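Project outcomes to date are best conveyed with an example. Our students and postdoctoral researchers have been running inverse folding experiments weekly, and each run begins with a structure described purely in tokens. The record below, which covers 113 residues, was selected by the lab manager from last quarter's runs and is presented without edits.
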């Protein structure tokens, strides 16, 4: 049992850096501290939690579509000259993940129905 605990602890110590976020995060909002953070933090968290940002991922076009939806339906004001900075921040720090779900199993490995 002790050997198993040691092995798990060693694995955790070795893998922890790979599992940590690439960018440092703000202690209050949890958002990535990167260029554009201040604008996103003040503009976006007026209406919703920063968690709504961090739980979503999209490319620049997807974030723009979300912003337009908020402007059309939720009363979000025009971002003006800050819009490019906001989009750059969101796409860079909350863009799509390159790794997703595993590929489906081949039919030969599925049980008969």
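After processing, the design step wrote out the following sequence:
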């Amino acid at each position: 049992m002790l050997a198993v605990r040691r092995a798990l602890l060693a694995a955790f110590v070795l893998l922890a850096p790979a599992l940590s976020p690439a960018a440092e995060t703000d202690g209050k909002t949890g958002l990535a501290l990167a260029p554009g953070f201040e604008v996103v933090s003040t503009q976006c968290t007026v209406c919703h939690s920063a968690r709504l940002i961090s739980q979503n991922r999209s490319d620049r076009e997807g974030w723009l579509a979300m912003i337009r939806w908020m402007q059309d339906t939720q009363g979000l004001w025009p971002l003006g000259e800050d819009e490019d900075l906001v989009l750059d921040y969101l796409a860079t720090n909350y863009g799509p993940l390159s790794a997703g779900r595993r590929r489906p199993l081949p039919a030969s490995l599925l049980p008969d129905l």
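Residues 13-21 have pLDDT under 50 and may be disordered. The two ends are 41 Å apart (CA to CA). The training component of this project remains on track.
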